[in-house]
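My current task is to audit a protein record that another person submitted. My question to you is simply how this chain folds and whether the C-alpha cells agree. This is what I was given:
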Amino acid sequence: MKTLFGDRQKCYKCYRPVISCMCKHICQVDTNTKFIILMHPKEFKKVKNGTGHFTHLALNNSELFIGVDFTNHHKINKIISTHQSFVLYPSKDAINISTTDISTSLDNKINMAIFIIDSTWSCSIKMLKKSKNLQKLEHLSFSTNKLSEFKIKQQPEEYCLSTIESTLCILEDLNRLSIENIDKNNLSNFLNPFHKMIEYQIKCIDNPLSNAVRYKPRNNY
C-alpha cells in the first residue's frame, strides 16, 4: 500500500520512498516466539536506514510500538501477563542464550515473548528506566563473531549490530536450542532487505543524481 507525502510517494509498510521500497525483498518467517519491537520516536524518523521496520515485517508473529515510556501501555502489559517475557539487552545479569540452554527453564504451557529495543544505546537506557513494566523482565543476550554489515552507518562499537542483525542471531540460537524450527533458507534470506537497502544507499552516494527525487516547480504569487 502506498501513500503520498507532499510530492513524494511512500510505502505504507516499510515507510521508505516508493523508489527505494524494500518490501519485495522481505522473507517472512513464522515463529512460536512473539517478538515485540519497541522503537524510539527518533528511530522512527530514520526512514533511510532504520531496520526495525524490516524486522517487524519479516516476523509474522511480531508487533511494533513507538514510544519511550511503556509503563501503562495496555497491549504491552497484556503480552507480559500472557507470555514468558524477556528483553534483549546485554546487561551483566543477562542470560546468554548462545551459552545457556534456556529451553529447560521455559514453561511449555506459556509462549515466550522477546522485547527488542530499536534505538541508540543511550536512548535504550532511558526507555528501560522509564518503562517500569520492562524493568521486571529478565534480560537476554547472545554471543557472536559477526561484525555489522551496516556499511553506511558507523556503529558505536565494533561488536554492535543493527536491530535486524541482532534478531537474526537470536533466531539462529532459538533454532539451535530447538525452541524454534525455522527453515534454514528463511534464515539465510532474513537480511535480504537490509542488504538491498545498503546497496541502494551506496548507489545513491556514488551517483547522487541517479536516484534524486525531483520536485515540480511551484509558482509564487
